[in-house]
Amino acid sequence: MIDTDIIAREVVEPGQPGLEELRQAFGETIINGDGTLNREALRAIMISDGSKRRLLDSILHPHINNRVLQRIEHHRNNDDGKPVIIDVPLLFEAGWDKLFGKVIVVHVSREAQIERLMKRDGIDRATAEATIATQMSVDEKKKKAGIVIDNSGSMKDTEIFAKKVFDMLCREW
Q: Which class is 101-173 in CATH?
């Protein structure tokens, strides 16, 4: 599986061109004393200003896209006969949905989404809600998806359903 959240973190590590481009675009306030990205400061900018969020996307998406393409190529060169799964949380927002044969949306309730974001990023509820508000609604994503997986049950239930979907994709591959 290729996880674009992980790739998004890689392209802004110290020494990476993505981090330097962000520094040039948004200034030193988004850089911590140790040279790493100050995610909280960047999030505040992204939430408060749609034009700056688009600038952020225009800087990071090409770097992320290049790494995704490299990893897809690696998969092709080491083909095990199985489809590659690419996890893209902002798939529709980035316009990448048109690049893939099948689009699967895994969803939870808005409340669960808020709680998971708060826990993952150590942020307060208002910040989590504002972050989610910058994204396409889950209902809209579900309408655009070819396959929908409800992730509000147990982890075991989600794993069972996801395995069935993967097996189906492997048969179609």
A: alpha beta
- The answer to whether residues 7 and 90 touch, using CB atoms and an 8 Å cutoff, is no
Question: Which residue ranges make up each domain of the chain?
Answer: 1-81, 101-173
What type of residue is 133?
A: A
In this chain, the answer to whether the domains covering 1-81 and 101-173 adopt an identical fold is: yes
Burial 125-159 (b: 16+ CB within 10 A, else e): eebbbbbeeeeeebeebeeebeebeebeeeeeebe
Whether the CB-CB separation of 134 and 53 falls below 8 Å is answered with: yes
Structure tokens that stand for 107 in this block? 């969803």
Class of domain 1-81: alpha beta
The set of residues, in sequence order, having a beta carbon less than 8 Å from that of 103 and lying 6+ positions away, is 91, 97, 144, 145, 146, 147
Tell me which H or E stretch contains 115. Answer: helix 110-121
Judge whether 122 and 74 are in contact, CB under 8 Å.
no
One digit per residue, the tens of pLDDT, for the chain of length 173 reads 899 999 999 999 999 999 999 999 999 999 999 999 999 999 999 898 889 999 999 999 999 999 999 998 998 888 777 788 899 988 998 888 888 888 999 999 999 999 999 999 999 999 999 999 989 999 999 999 999 999 988 889 989 998 999 899 888 87
